[in-house]
Queue: 2 jobs
Job 1
Amino acid sequence: MEFQQLLIGIFERVSQTLEKALDGLTQDELNYLPNPDCNSIAWLAWHLTRVQDSAISNLMGKEQCWIAEKWCSKFSRNPDPNDRGVGHSSEDVSSFKSPDSKTLLDYYCAVFKHTKEYISKLSTAELGREIDNLRFPKVGLYLTAITNDNLQHVGQIAYLRGMLKGKGWYGA
């Protein structure tokens, strides 16, 4: 197995888990906050997608799907490329109201399409390329951070889904 297949497989797993976790949720369930200082399923799904969109678009040297494909309007938000949820306060999170689960998943799928395109052409040399990022100064480190972020957040989404629906929602 090539490393590109491994990375694409990780993001595919995020997509599959996200699809199952969002399936059939109502607006109230998507926007449910377990307490005022927690994130909702909808906010987490939006945030993990925004982080992936921002990072991959940056690595590709392209405009984010958020802006280029007008996803911001489907979320009733401004086309701010820095609006990714990073640094959001509890008030910002609680005021976030999501579109339906299909729109959340469709946005992830649009971003994942770009992610697959980028990763499928990724070379070993590109992994070592230095980038303008203080915390993750090389492409490989940046991709590791993105996958870590996505896996953590999709796990949080799955946990919240379990809180709402109980055991067995994920299947065998």
Job 2
Amino acid sequence: MAYTVQQLITFSYYLSNLLARGLEEVSSQQITDGLDRFNGMLATATSQIGLIPYFQEYDFPAVIGQEVYYVPSLVEVETMTFNINNVRYSMMETSREKYFATPRVDNIDALPYMWHFERLLNGGNIYLYFLPQQAYVMKLWGKFKLNQATLETDLTLVYEDFYIEYLKYKLAKALCDFNGAMFPPQHQVQLESYEKTIRNVIPLDLTMKKISSFSGAQPFNYADANIGRGFRPS
């Protein structure tokens, strides 16, 4: 059964206690305000990545010799790999300082072995090094900003039931703030419980990766440019 944004806004007004269910109707102006607050809430989730519960796959073709690739709506990258036919190669994430501020030869075309992500307005840039020597199929898993909605948007086609339930309470809180009213304390407790649950739906991967200073496989060696092409047996 469809569940539209307008239905959610109406329910949230009653949940907030701003209107008495069965006694007061939600006005057209209140619906308009509710839609504005709902879309503002989705936009805010972009800065609170833990409250975006879904990872998505995004594939794009590499361009020979091209370092930077813009991905619209991307807010966080979890993993990055690329394929040569049916063989998948892993890549190493690196920090801003290590990617932009360490010495290297910039114009090496080879197998990319590291990547860095920088957020931009309405998306972000993926940086690859080495520069791709072929049109490899790049594959990332990450989180994307939540799309803006209309009153007719069917939320059941976008979100699971538990997330729709969370959005009801989140919007009710936003409407109370917008109207200068107190959000019912029992609903605040429920909202915090939902937020905790959502953050635990897909927790961060905190797997430890040990790097030895005495390992023969250093992150980069200029010999790799001509011999190992960035990849060699450990």
